[in-house]
Amino acid sequence: MSNAVSIAVAGVAESDLGQVAAGMSPVDLMAQATVRALDDCGLKLSDVDGIFCASAQVRFGPMVLAEYLGIQPKVFDGTQIGGASFMSHLAHARAALEAGLCDVALIAYGSTQRSVSRSSASPPDFNPYETPFRPMMPASAYALSASRHMHLYGTTREQLAEVAVAARQWALLNPAAWEKEPLSIEQVLQSRVVSWPLTVRDCCLVVDGGGAMIVTRSDRAKTLRRPPVHVLGIGEALGHNSISNMPDLTVTAARESGRQAFARAGLAPRDVKMLSLYDAFTITPILFLEDLGFCAKGEGGPFVAGGAIAPGGRLAVNTNGGGLSYCHPGMYGLLAMIEAVRQVRGECGPRQVPGCDVALAHGNGGVLSSQCTVLFGSAATH
Amino acid sequence: MKSPLTLYQEHLGRGELAYQVSDGRPVFFPRVAAPGTGSTDLAWKVSKGEGAVYATTVAHYKGEPPLNIALIELDEGFRMMSRVEDIPAESVRIGMRVRLRVLPASEGRAALPVFVPVRP
User: Fold this and answer.
1) C-alpha to C-alpha distances, A207 to A36, A261, A326, B51, nearest whole angstrom
2) For A318, which DSSP code?
3) Model pTM?
4) Interface predicted TM-score (ipTM) of this complex, two decimals
5) Which residues have a Cβ under 8 Å from the Cβ of A376 and sit 6 or more positions away?
6) What CATH number does domain B4-117 carry, 2.40.50.100, 2.40.50.840, 3.40.50.970, 3.40.50.300?
7) What residues of A are in contact with residue B5 (Cβ under 8 Å)?
8) How many interface pairs between A and B have CB atoms less than 8 angstroms apart?
C-alpha cells in the first residue's frame, strides 16, 4: 500500500514562538521558519516551486508569501479549513509532487495572535442561527461536545484534566514550550471556568508562532541533509461547519480521515509509536483517540486516566506539550506535524519516544469540523 | 423573492419557530436548496416548539451572570442552538424537556427563540 505514496518531509522548523518581537507580521514568521526549514535540509529558496500556506490574518496567503519570498510558484494552495489546513496542504502537495507539477513544496504558517489579540487576529463569522445566543467561540462548541460525552459515557472532569496535566508534563521536557511550571489535576479543576465544563486550563494557549515544512519526492529527500521522514498515508475529511449542525457531538470526521490514512499506509493503530493529536481543548485528544481507533467510542476518558498519555505512560501523545502547554498560535496543525517528524527522526532529546518509526499527526479545524490525519514513517517503514 | 433568513425571522416575529421539510426530512437552518439533494422544493413548517436538551454549556463572561448555551433537539427532528431560561444556567441537563418561548425583537436585535423547562 505504501508504495503508492512517494513523498517525504525533508526539512522542518518553527519560527519564533510565544511572544514575538514587536511589529513582526504573520508573514515575517512564515519567512523566518521557511529559511530555517531550508537550512535544516540544505535546499535553497530558489529550489522551492510550490507554496502552501494559510493564516486567519492573511486572506490571500500564497500571494502574500510568494511576494515576500520572491518566488513564482508553479503550484500554490491556500486551503483554509482552520487548524487542520496544513495536513490538507500536505495531501495536496503530495498530489502535486506525484504528478510532477512541482519538485519542492513549502508549507508555512504564521500568527501574531498574542501580539495583536485573538479577536483581531481571528474575528468570528456572524451566524444568525448561533451568534445571537452568544456562545464563547470556539470554547463553547467544544464544551457542548464535552457535555454530551460526559452524559453518554460517564467521562469525568478529572479525565479531561488528565489531558492538560499530561501535556504539561511533556512541555516541561521541551525547552521551546511556553509553559514552564508543573500543573496538577486539582489546579485544572479549580481554574477559572470559561465555558462549563471547560476551565481555562482545558483551553489551548493563545500565543504567537509559526512553522515551515519542506516536502519533496522521497528519492530526492534521501540525498539531502536530514534523514527523510516518509509520508505513509494521509486522510482528509470535512464534517459540519457550525456546531449546531454536527450530526453527533461525540463522533468526529476523524473516523473517516483516520480510516483513509491507515488504509493508504497499510498500517493499524498498534503500529503507531507516537501521536500528535490536535489539543485545542482537553476533550479533543479523547475524541480523536476513539475516532482514530486507539480505543472504543466512549472509552477515551478511562484511556487517558492515570497518566497514560503522559511521559512514561502507555502511549506517547503530544510530546512537545501540545497546544495546551507548548504553543497554540491560532492554528496548530503544522506544529503538530513538525513534532511527529522530529520524533521519527529521533532528535527529541529527553522527550524522545524510543524506536519511534511510525508517528501520527492529526489536525482539527473549526469546531470539530475539519479532520485530517497523517502517518509519518522512518526509512525502515517505507 | 425573500431570503430564507427573512422568512424565518418573519415567523419568529409572529412567535413561531419555522423550519423546512424536503422529501419528508426536516431541514434546519433554512436554505434555498436542500442538503444532499439540492432540491428547491422546500416546504416551510411551524414547529410545535417542544423538544429536549441535546447538549449544554455555561459561558462565563467577565462581569456577567453565567449564560446557558444549549443545543435543542426539536420533536420534529431538527436541532438548533438556543438557551434554556427560567432556571439557573448550570441546572440545565441533557435530556430535559423544554418548550419554546420567543423573545420579541428589541433594540436592533431580531426576535429570539429560547426555551424553558416543561414542568411535569
Assistant:
1) 20, 30, 10, 41
2) -
3) 0.97
4) 0.98
5) A9, A229, A230, A231, A232, A337, A340, A341, A344, A358, A359, A360, A361
6) 2.40.50.840
7) 128
8) 79
